[in-house]
Input
Amino acid sequence: MKFFWMIAFFLLQDTEAFLMKNAKVKLCLQASPMNGDLLLEDCNPESDFQDWSWQGDSLMNHGTQSCLSMVGANRLQTSLCSSVGYTRWDCSNSLLSPLGSSQGYLVANRKGVALNSMGGLKAQWQDVADRSVCEEKAAKAEQDRYFPAALASTHVYGHTAGNMTLALGIGQEELEELLWFFRREDPSTWNYSVLALSFVAFILGLLLLAINIVRNRKRKIHMYREAVQTTQQAELEAKQALMPVQEYSPAELQKQEPVLQDQRSGEVVVQWKDGTVTSLYTEI
Output
């Protein structure tokens, strides 16, 4: 049951806002953030000052967080929803009129909006999909039966929380858990924490990259040295294979030593295949 409310809240929390477009002039009602005046401007779904929603029988502007009010006999503007000029509105057939009053309907004119007893297209208000604002009110009332506004805020008083538990059919403890889940708080601490973790991850990535570069360099140097040693060994073996090696027995070496000792400087000797050594030029 709890997860049903969570999923439904995420799906419907932004569907209550709508634009108020006049059926005649095709302009949208916009609240001024400076003095609360009401203007007719080109429809802009991205503007919060053109977003309206039904709060019971009142129309609240999302940009100014104030309600559509009647000040004086025929002056309309936005003011605090708890102010004296707060006006509740009756909606029927796309026509808006002050609830319990016969001063006329909300109509569009050159200066903005006013109250007029004449109906017609100038008094009809629709959303961007050309659906009557009265249908929006009915949809909001149906939504409020199952999704009270208390679920979107943590500022719920004791008597309100008790009424909400009765309306939702859930216990007080489960309602408090839902309110904690949808709480609103300053995200600065979380943002700074994520930023610090990102910086640490960046430094760790640089450190791992440097270690990897050093290890790759050492591995390449080691491979190069092994290749040089292998090449030198192969060249040495090739040279040894081309040079004939003459082996002498120990007796032959001893036999040749006295002969070499008797040789004189400047004498030319020849060593024959049988091992004998003779002088090339004999004395006369």
